[in-house]
Specification:
Order of helices and strands: EHEHEHEHEHEHEHEHH
Shape: globular
Oligomer: single chain
Strand order of the largest sheet: 1-2-3-4-5-6-7-8
Helix content: 40-55%
Largest sheet: 8 strands, parallel
Radius of gyration: 17 Å
């Protein structure tokens, strides 16, 4: 059984002292590939350096919606395009999206989102979408963008929406990725969404170092814990974990165009 953690931030300072040990644990958990998200383009060289150390790491480049204010410029858009074109290990644009929980600069966020969607189209890459307190605005905006410019493939990462909202993004062609929040006992709407997503659109992630799943809540999250996420989703869907792992791993390989799975160590 092999898994793909489709959203990590292992470049953060909390991993600097023990990243080799963290990698050993994800390898022991049979995490075959990791997708490293990007908060802002200045992270790119650091993420590249980590990928040089760990060949199972692929990565994205983009600007997070909470970093748009004061940072988004036409030069940043050009930089994202050039960086994404510069390394074959870049498999996505993002993370981009909308966050109306911590910021209200909707026009700036939408402009940044549109530019990154256009870059993804030009390079035929998927987008990694962050969406917090913005599902309706996001879905409506995507519908307009799709109508005017054509669709973009991608993933709604760390998904926490209602089943109705989940269906909006499924109808738009998105994959839906569940994080450690799916293991939280009171996260009923996330549980319901995890049960309804078609098997060919389902992904799992950690979003580490954030949102550690049960039984690791309150601790630093790390990629090995994606197995706990997968086990919970499998339980919610009444599936054997091996089957759920195969489905989500195949989906991740399809969306991000990852190489064939490496042989498992004996």
């Amino acid at each position: 059984m092999q898994l793909v953690d489709t959203h990590v931030h292992i470049n953060f300072e909390t991993f600097q002292q023990d990243l080799d040990e963290v990698a050993q644990r994800w390898r022991e958990a049979n995490v075959a590939y990791l997708i490293h998200s990007c908060v802002e383009p200045s992270e790119f060289s650091g993420i590249q350096a980590i990928a040089d150390r760990f060949p199972e790491l692929f990565f994205a480049v983009g600007l997070h919606p909470l970093d748009v204010e004061g940072k988004w410029t036409n030069q940043i858009a050009d930089q994202i395009f050039q960086l994404a074109s510069s390394d074959r290990r870049v498999v996505a644009i993002g993370e981009t999206g909308l966050d109306f929980f911590k910021a209200q600069n909707s026009d700036q966020q939408l402009n940044s989102l549109d530019e990154q969607l256009a870059i993804a189209q030009r390079l035929d890459l998927p987008v990694i979408i962050h969406c917090r307190n913005a599902a309706e605005a996001m879905a409506n905006h995507f519908r307009r963008f799709w109508e005017q410019n054509g669709s973009v493939r991608g993933v709604m990462h760390c998904w926490g929406g209602t089943p109705e909202e989940t269906q909006w993004f499924l109808d738009l062609g998105f994959f839906i990725s569940f994080s450690g929040t799916v293991t939280f006992k009171k996260a009923i709407q996330i549980h319901e969404s995890a049960q309804m997503v078609p098997s060919d659109r389902l992904l799992v992630e950690t979003d580490c170092p954030f949102l550690a799943p049960v039984p690791h809540r309150g601790k630093r999250n790390e990629p090995a814990n994606v197995r706990d996420v997968a086990e919970q989703v499998a339980e919610l869907r009444n599936l054997p974990i091996d089957q759920l792992a195969a489905q989500t791993t195949n989906n991740a390989r399809k969306l991000f165009r990852l190489p064939p799975l490496p042989a498992l160590a004996i």
